[in-house]
Amino acid sequence: MVSRLNILKHDDQHGDTASGSREKAVQLAAGFAERATAHDRAGSFPFANFQELSDAGLLALTVPEALGGGGAGLREAADVVSIIARADPSTALVLSMHYIQHLIIARSPRWPAHLARRLAKETVDGLALINALRVEPDLGSPSRGGLPATTARRTETGWRLSGRKIYSTGSPILKWYAVWAKTDEPELRVGLFLVPAGLPGTRIVETWDHIGLRASGSHDVVFDDVVFPLDHEIDVRRPDQWGAPDPLQASAHNVFIAAIYDGVARAARDWLVHFLNSRVPSNLGASLATLPRVQEAVGGIEAHLAVNARLIASFAGDFDDGIAIGASDSNILKLTVTENAIAVTHAALALSGNHGLTRANPLERHHRDALCGRVHTPQDDATRIAAGRLALGV
Length: 394
Description:
By secondary structure, the chain is of the alpha+beta class. The chain is 51% helix and 13% strand. It has twelve helices and eight strands.
């Protein structure tokens, strides 16, 4: 069970400016946590969570105030994501991908105004989520280079899209896809197209059967000659016009990913503290929490979480203040926080023994979920190589 007191205590250190959104998230988190185990075991999608998020106005948190949304910055949104992640990180992952899109839409001059207004209105008015679909079976992650196989063919009646995207987080509930594709024009271009979900020729193939984040609905989405309007081209350029990843999007992505896995680690810590205080072996005659070696190990967990909290707050604050964040620093944030989260769950398992590994308790799920932090872009090897090259000047 998520501790409401612990969540509020952690988040209140950031001040009270975003207390309304955090309080709403805390109120929803308890119900999300109660359902998380069942969704994890079945690999089922938590539709009810998103209806509740919509009803509470939290889906529109990063939509600009001028368009009817909450106008939240990255720090406030990351706080909400962390609270939700402590209850159900699959829900938090889908929510964070949606938040990223609206943060970037509000800040990018390349997003067509009519599309930005439409997505904002639909998100404010109802249950309308968006995510970017970029990864493909052969291409892998676009962050490592290469052209997508997914192709948009221009016709007089609209774009016609064909291709397959994998790891399409939130696919069962998305209303909009921002699809990474190339054109078949004589001078090839590549970029993002806004595709409404559910059009003829679109199908979801339920391939997601993962060790962790099992309720994220990260299935394959297949497009078979799907027709959508010509004015739904978002940002499409010649391949040589695409340089390094957009620093704003990369920074927001890394902060949200860090917030998710820090939330998972805090959920593991909360369960462990309760277990250690309530477990009283007959040969000890006192709780495990009274043992110095246990206290030292829990202190190590607290050190990891303290570092995570400071890093996430600092990077999110810089983003909101318009301070440029270097790509290497942003990537190292994600690497550090996710590795700290894995270390926390590993330490918790070591302290709890068989109790932590049994499926009757949530710790084994927290550990499985934490391990997923390593596979999100940027992967650890790419982050370390880039940081090493920067330091070596090569």
